[in-house]
Design a protein that fits this description.
It is built from 6 helices and 7 strands. The protein has 284 residues and is an alpha+beta fold. The chain has one domain. The chain is elongated. About 3% of the residues have low confidence.
């Protein structure tokens, strides 16, 4: 009787290993591209957030003929602690961001930290948080990753600052003598403060005092005493690679490189220093 042999077709072990190796290489090449595409989308969304904020600021100016005060408080300088009125500029523009219910829920006379305002403090407002950072309530307080520019150097938030948003400020367009297109209004923050978007402290105000190779949240300056820590404001920052999104007084949104000249960056935070901007030798 003749035997019948059945031949099975299959891959060899070597062929399987080669295919797996090729797939691994392709995945390794694809993942960075996917991550880069996702970050580009988040950066675009962040730019849109900043655009909404500056638009709301301008709508406030159209209504009151002045920009919102950086912080509302009877006295200064502003201390970074939950004591005081400390109504932030973010609170004042809520009606122009489709957040009138939250605005109504803030009793400004009682102050940002009053128990009556606890519900409002916990409200998450999408345009005030960068999508490149993970969002989480801090002690039931909603933070923000955007801040108004209060000064051009590191100094406590007070009534004599050189930015657009500071203590009880009432800045008008005519007060921006350097030109709105040359003045930073709003920028990103890399180290959200626990006092949240409702607080007119370093939680929503920063300065263009200095940078050290990249946008640094604390300007590279560590406080020496507790008192200095309470008064420290710090600078802008970002989780984006290479720089951060900023809104200028003319409504334009620009991505400033982390390699921008510190001198130029400082000038952009001053609304009326009268100095010409040297854009020729800077990474703008």
């Amino acid at each position: 009787m003749k035997k019948t042999y059945i031949r099975y077709r299959a891959f060899t072990l070597v062929e399987l290993l080669v295919v797996i190796a090729i797939i691994g290489i392709l995945v390794g090449l694809l993942l960075p591209a996917v991550q880069a595409a996702r970050e580009a989308a988040r950066r675009c969304q962040c730019s849109n957030n900043v655009s909404q904020l500056i638009l709301a600021v301008h709508n406030h100016e159209f209504s009151f003929e002045r920009f919102p005060a950086g912080t509302i408080n009877p006295t200064g300088p502003i201390r970074n602690e939950p004591i005081g009125q400390h109504i932030s500029w973010v609170v004042q523009i809520l009606p122009y961001m489709e957040q009138r219910a939250t605005f109504t829920g803030v009793n400004q006379a009682l102050g940002a930290y009053a128990v009556e305002n606890s519900r409002a403090r916990s409200q998450s407002i999408p345009p005030v948080y960068c999508p490149s950072q993970s969002f989480a309530l801090i002690d039931n307080v909603a933070p923000t990753t955007y801040a108004g520019c209060h000064h051009d150097v590191e100094a406590p938030i007070d009534a004599d600052n050189n930015g657009v948003f500071f203590l009880n400020s009432r800045v008008r367009f005519d007060d921006i003598e350097d030109g709105s297109s040359n003045t930073i209004f709003i920028g990103e923050v890399a180290d959200p403060d626990v006092l949240g978007w409702i607080s007119g402290t370093r939680a929503t105000l920063r300065n263009t005092g200095s940078i050290q190779g990249k946008f640094s949240g604390r300007n590279g300056a560590l406080p020496v005493t507790k008192e200095e820590d309470i008064l420290l404001v710090g600078g802008f920052g970002s989780f984006h690679t290479g720089g951060a999104n900023f809104a200028y007084g003319d409504g334009s949104i620009r991505f400033l490189s982390a390699n921008i000249s510190p001198v130029l960056f400082q000038k952009l935070g001053h609304r009326r220093d009268g100095q010409m901007l040297d854009l020729g030798n800077s990474d703008f």
